[in-house]
Amino acid sequence: MGVFLDAGNLFLRLTSLIMMKYILLLVSILALCLVSPNQASIWQLEDQQLVNENDFQEFKSGFLVTTASSADFDDDGKLECLELSGDVLQITNCDNQVFWQSPISWQVKEAQITDLNRDGMDEVTLVVWRPFQPWPIDRFLPSAGRINDFHDQNGMSCHVILIGWARQDYNELWAGSALIRPVSRLRAVDLDGDGLQEMVALEEIYDAAISVGALTIWHWSGFGFSLMDKVEGKFRQIDVIGSPIQNWVFTR
Question: Which one of 21, 75, 166, 183 is least enclosed by Cβ atoms within 10 Å?
């Protein structure tokens, strides 16, 4: 009899834990919804388009995905850490040894550990503001270049830059030109289930009074990022909900 009672108690405990996890996830999502009920939405990628999914039953096995702060960038079996403070990013040995530091002219607003260039190695994807520079060829044009207005009133432009281990050191793996519209709230997530990450970000407006923007999703094209889809709106935040079989983007 004691064996059956113990088994029954164990089953009840496991059931309670599963239900508690589901309830906590729903409470978290509902709490996020209450922050901005008009903008709270859950998104999935279907046929390279962002589709609004609001069936909460799909998220029973889901969890809120947090961003990592350490990875083995140089494949030496040891972790390196990201330390972002005062718009300055450092890659360290997770102690007091600095392997790489962002240039003094950069304002690093965000830093994510990603594999957005899909080479199988972790890199750091940065959202950087720095003094605007036109394309070199634009200096020889009789009129202003095509990106001449891609900056704020202080002459600062927004860029997405990838930093990683290459040629036995930390280097720029890729640096984008000044963006026509600045991005924020960047997240890397596999939304279509192909095992490769897409870049999700809010696309804002230079010199806007409020930090809101459109929801955008981008994929690596081999030479840079190509826009897959954009949903216009006044979104403020991006979160990622993960599960063993699928990921979603949560906006508000």
Answer: 75
